[in-house]
């Protein structure tokens, strides 16, 4: 199977046709022209200060509440390292981002998976866990167009989660890289913006709105927490990449980012719609919730379809997928995550048709 023939629903990345390469090239020239000393120097561990200020204004916080990092996964790692100790209870969504699970498991956390419903984390199930005596240090939540399930946490549940965090004294880690990639419905306020009790730490990224290669993410939280993490960051790397961050800053202040977001929204909205239509046509027995934004759609198959057999059968037919079992502590044996971000609309139907062939092959 050649690379040209492969249709990959595996990787959560945008296709090159929706990346503003020309805008990024122009932003790079402006960055070096406007601030050659700042771009080429070490910088500080809090990140490129003009970008830090722009992010603070976007979220309505002070600049000392922002830490700009090399991608949001590093922001996650900094927060986990700062807050979580071996044996600490941590709440995660079920399913959740596979790298989050791996990193927390590696740290020796006691993980508690809470089911995800069509309107996000099951807060009633979480309350029951808390009432049973579990006292988590942290609850990791991806509120918008969740990876991998594509669900969005409702406004009512956002408020309830904030109340639970205040009552049971745990930190909500609002991991929110997909918020701007909305193609249906109304945007909901972040938990960070609703937080009056300092229980939320927020992370996001320019990976989904600019491009993955810039590797620029950030943390927003209480100033004292950010200052403590910044000290650790200084010891780790002196400063993150100033060149990338300065380019992103120019891309943002010019308004190019708004145009980029519109391009990505339009393309991914079409891809999500085509994927849902193709699934209904070729795999009517599959269950899924069509996402309102983001990169991912979660598909559940009948009990007689095991993804341990389905994934290799799909690969034989030139379709790459990710098994649902990668995103949960246990289970997920009948589910797949389909990333539609990198598959152009004209290839999606063919990919689903091949996947349907694979399903038939493993059922017979």
Helix content: 40-55%
According to DSSP, the number of beta strands is 13
Mean residue pLDDT: 96
**Main sheet properties:** 8 strands, mixed
Reported by name, the CATH topology of the largest domain is Aspartate Aminotransferase, domain 2
State the separation between the terminal residues, measured CA to CA. 24 Å
CATH class descriptor name of the largest domain:
Alpha Beta
Based on CA atoms alone, the radius of gyration comes out at: 21 Å
Oligomer: single chain
Low-confidence regions: none
H/E element order: EHHHEHEHEEHEHEHEEHHHEHEEEH
Number of helices: 13
Alpha-beta content class: alpha/beta
Name the beta content range: 15-25%
Considering the protein shown, what is the CATH homologous superfamily of the largest domain?
Type I PLP-dependent aspartate aminotransferase-like (Major domain)
General description of the model:
The chain is of the alpha/beta class. The chain folds into two domains: 118 residues, Aspartate Aminotransferase, domain 1; 234 residues, Aspartate Aminotransferase, domain 2 (3-Layer(aba) Sandwich), CATH 3.40.640. It contains 13 helices and 13 strands. The chain has an eight-stranded mixed beta sheet with strand order 2-9-8-7-6-3-4-5, with helices on both faces. It has a three-stranded antiparallel beta sheet with strand order 10-13-12, with helices on one face. Helix 4 runs parallel beside helix 5. The two termini are 24 Å apart.
């Amino acid at each position: 199977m050649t690379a040209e023939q492969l249709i990959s629903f595996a990787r959560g990345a945008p296709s090159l046709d929706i990346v503003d390469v020309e805008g990024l090239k122009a932003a790079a020239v402006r960055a070096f022209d406007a601030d050659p000393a700042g771009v080429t120097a070490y910088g500080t561990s809090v990140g490129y200060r003009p970008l830090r200020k722009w992010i603070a204004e976007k979220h309505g916080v002070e600049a000392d509440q922002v830490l700009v990092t090399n991608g949001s996964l590093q922001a996650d790692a900094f927060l986990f390292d700062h807050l979580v100790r071996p044996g600490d209870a941590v709440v995660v969504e079920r399913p959740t981002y596979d790298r989050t699970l791996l990193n927390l498991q590696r740290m020796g956390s006691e993980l508690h998976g809470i089911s995800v419903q069509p309107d996000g984390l099951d807060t009633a199930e979480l309350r029951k866990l808390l009432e049973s005596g579990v006292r988590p240090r942290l609850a990791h939540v991806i509120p918008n167009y969740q990876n991998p399930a594509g669900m969005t946490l409702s406004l009512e549940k956002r408020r309830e989660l904030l109340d639970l965090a205040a009552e049971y004294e745990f930190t909500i880690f609002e991991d929110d890289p997909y918020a701007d990639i909305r193609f249906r419905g109304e945007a909901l306020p972040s938990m960070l913006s609703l937080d009056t009790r300092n229980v939320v730490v927020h992370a996001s990224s320019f990976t989904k709105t600019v491009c993955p290669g810039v590797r620029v993410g950030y943390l927003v939280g209480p100033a004292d927490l950010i200052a403590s993490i910044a000290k650790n960051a200084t010891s780790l790397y002196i400063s993150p990449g100033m060149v990338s961050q300065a380019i992103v800053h120019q891309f943002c202040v010019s308004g190019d980012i708004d145009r980029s977001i519109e391009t990505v929204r339009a393309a991914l909205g079409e891809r999500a719609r085509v994927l849902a239509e193709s699934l209904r046509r070729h795999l009517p027995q599959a269950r899924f919730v069509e996402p309102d934004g983001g990169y991912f759609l979660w598909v559940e198959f009948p009990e007689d379809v095991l993804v341990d057999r389905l994934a290799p059968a799909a690969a034989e037919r030139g379709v790459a997928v990710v098994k649902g079992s990668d995103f949960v502590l246990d289970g997920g044996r009948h589910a797949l995550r389909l990333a539609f971000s990198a598959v152009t609309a004209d290839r999606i139907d063919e990919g689903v048709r091949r996947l349907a062939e694979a399903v038939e092959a493993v059922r017979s």
